[in-house]
Predict the structure.
Amino acid sequence: MTPLFKSHFSIGKSILVLKSNGDEKSSDGIFDIAKEAGLKDVVLVEDNMTSFLQAAKTSKEFGVNLIYGLRITVCDSYSEESYGKDCHKVIIFAKNGEGCKRLNKIYSAAFSQEHNSITLSKLKELWTKDVKLAIPFYDSFIYNNLMEFSSCIPRFDFTEPTFFIEDNELPFDQIIKESVEKYVKKNKHQVERVKTIYYKNRKDFAAYQTFKCAANRSGWAGKTISLQKPNLEHCGSSEFCFESYLAATK
């Protein structure tokens, strides 16, 4: 199983920082966690590229290998008729130095658009062997087709994607897992078990939920948001943590 860290640079998604300042009251640092656990690799999946330079610098300081991934929205087109119905998330990993440059080009192409997304045809145009495609467990086209009643079947004929499978004790995890395994078997794709990590320990879930409530600005318009009724997706489990990863790998 591979831990997939996300930092506070992905706004509103994680309470983990890249490197703590040594203050016990500060947020937990991803590289501190990795050092404590003896990890040789840190897999960082972000929703933008703003953390890359600091992550690369910190990984060298800690003597660990950084594997950087960009989680991005892909769609078939930007047409008013189809946009939104065919959107889904993918993760693109840089394999090497050239892959990092290519990842930045893909990021620039996506975030120069009004919708902050990239079409599959444009992604194919920018694709090289220096990057790797992964399909996340949540918010993928399989998840959207199953849970949001979408009907998106993207063509990955330009590369060989790896499909991620997670178990965070959410009620629909098993349903999604079965759908992913069925699709992977039919299309002969690779699959990998992963664990998304937004905080260090299960006890940090309340702090994470509070942070999510504060960061969910769109919710303040006409809605009442509180810890008792947060209205937050994927906040029905405290398993998105490194403690859960350690328990699952024992």
Remarks:
- Confidence is low (pLDDT under 50) at residues 218-231.
- Helices lie at 30-37, 52-62, 97-111, 120-126, 141-147, 173-187, 205-215, 242-248.
